[in-house]
Amino acid sequence: MGLKIERNPAPVWFRPLIPLLAIALTFAITSTLVLLVKANPLQAYYYFLAEPLSSRVSIIEVLVKSTPLLLTGAAVTFAFVGGFWNIGAEGQLLAGATAATAIGLQMDGVSPLIALPLMIAGGFAAGMAWVLIPALMRVKLAIDEVVTTLLLNSVALLGVSALLNGPWRDPISQWPQSPEIAASAMFPKLIPRSRLHLGFVLAIVIIVVMWFVLSRTAFGLRMRAVGMSPDAARFAGIKVERTLLISALASGGIAGLAGVSEVAGIHFHLIDAISGGNGYTGIIVATLGGLNPWGAGLAALFIGVIDTGSQSVSRALGVPVYLGDVILATLLLVTLAMLLLQRYRVSWSRE
Amino acid sequence: MSDILSTTFLVGLIAATLRVATPLVFGTVGEVITERAGILNLGIEGIMFLGAFVGFAAAAKAEAAGVAGYLWIGLLAAVVSGLLMALLMGLLTVTLGLNQHVSGLGITLLATALSLFGFRVVFGESSVLPSIDPFPQLAPLGKDLLISPIFAQYLLTYVAFLVVVPLGWWVLFRTNFGLNLRSVGENPEAADAAGINVFRTRYAALLIGGALMAAGGAFLSLAQLGAFSPGIIAGRGWVCIALVIFARWNPVRGMLGALLFGGVFALQLRLQTLGFALPYEVLLALPYLVTIAALAIAGRNAAYPGAYLKPYRRE
């Protein structure tokens, strides 16, 4: 007697339903915690899902929260599709944020037309640099990238902290935060007097480009082949190492852009909480999105809703704001388990 | 400079090194055992955090209720929470055969979020951090000898160095169970053919590991600090992940790595209090950088368990 898992791909129509089923199941599981704090789960989920979409202000806030997630989600999706298990988006984001700050601090009196492209290019390059060593180790030495990319997250955080406690410590407030970047280096707002900024457009562009590359170019085809089976790809004459290296570097660069976007669009200086776990949440975005660019886009927006909603749930019902994080983590695990249904049939056998 | 060369400084440094290394020893040995069975448990960071929280919350409640052994209740509760998370990890990666690294990170995110949620539920939003009367330090050599401070440690520190490390090594390398565990991590197909229950063995390894990780976290809240805060683990789980590789999957070498890191950590803390301006972050980044360098040098010969990261399915 036991769980039986057989190869048996699910019908195509079923696949888009998997994330929806996962969301429903996650809410069912986490409602026990809502009951634990003596709140009404239905009411709580109303605040989680409907409240953030009920006013113009909060919809804008959802988009603001989604912006870094669109980028880290795109970064992780790109890497995972290409078969590079980059779990270092957090560190690459911090590297991008650091580079953006370094450039932004020097941009006094420079036109935004020069400053902004410089910051974007610098952040992309820094993200690529942060993933370069794990990528080379994987390609040249066949050393698994999971641990190396993960450990570099901690190194990046310590690096940021060293800068903020050392050369970049704000000379006026003495807080561990960098001085403010030049005005010309700040991303313009998309809507006046809101927090929505150019980073959102950048993120959408990245998603579209990623979709194009993955599904409309020969390189995308090679990437997916390498991601599915490096041996088969090699047999088919694909330069596996080169393809892996490019996927990894592009992924790191995109994660770096998330750092640029947070510095130039929201905070305007570097703080050590600049990421707040967006790199790790990118893994949730990519998984929930089924490693598909549009899926990642929708997942990032959905998580933006949950993030915004956890604030209003907390305000309205006194449910601790961390319920949002519990929901997201549960959602990751449930989605992961349900994706199994895409490839296998799970049944209970009595033998 | 004379401050640093004095014997008191050295004795204090050694004592602090043992303290700092304790949670790392628990975590590293737990992760070594888990990885030897072929499972990378990236849930370690979250499990240590959950252990610290659950241990503290249970102890605080028991103390408030006037139960004498409240610290032991806390420790037990922490271990149970570690076992539960290990079971969940087993369900995902052993039974369902899902991606180990994403599952492990998911466990870390879940355990962390649950702890923070639980902390708010149990202790509310009071601005004063709740605290408990923690485990006392033992003093087998009294207080008067020059080397007394080195031995003035918590019971859990003694357990870590004198029980967890030798026992972990002995079980892994000198028992049938350890042989089975390693063969399951090295070549599950062959182990299965030899009649070893791969699934059960991997669950056992995960459970032992989860219990140790949670105990390591609980050491911080129940002994060293007597309190819980969101920054309590602060990447110690990731340090353990690095130490496991540095130690080439051996508990004894893992202990040496933990001592090395503990020493560096304790030293930078002391130098800072003495007014030395040093970018301590560089020192703290050492375990990660050294591990990555060690991997790069070992290259293709890095001694990964054969079935590392590979789910096992009976076809």
Describe this structure in words.
The complex is a heterodimer of chains A (351) and B (315). Chain A has 13 helices and 2 strands, in the order βαααααααααααααβ. Chain A has a two-stranded antiparallel ribbon with strand order 1-2. Chain A has a single domain, classed as Orthogonal Bundle (ABC transporter involved in vitamin B12 uptake, BtuC), CATH 1.10.3470. Helices cover 69% and strands 3% of the residues of chain A. Chain A is mostly helical. The model of chain A has no long low-confidence stretch (mean pLDDT 93). In chain A, 53% of the residues are buried. Chain B has a single domain, classed as ABC transporter involved in vitamin B12 uptake, BtuC, CATH 1.10.3470. The interface between A and B is large, with 47 and 48 residues.
Cα end-to-end separation of chain B: 66 Å
Estimated radius of gyration of chain A: 21 Å
The percentage helix of chain A is 55-70%
Protein chain pair with the most extensive contact, residues per chain: A-B, 47 and 48 residues
The topology string of helices and strands of chain B comes to HHHHHHHHHHHHHH
CATH architecture label of chain A: Orthogonal Bundle
Biggest β-sheet strands, sense, barrel of chain A? 2 strands, antiparallel
- Residues in helix, % of chain B: over 70%
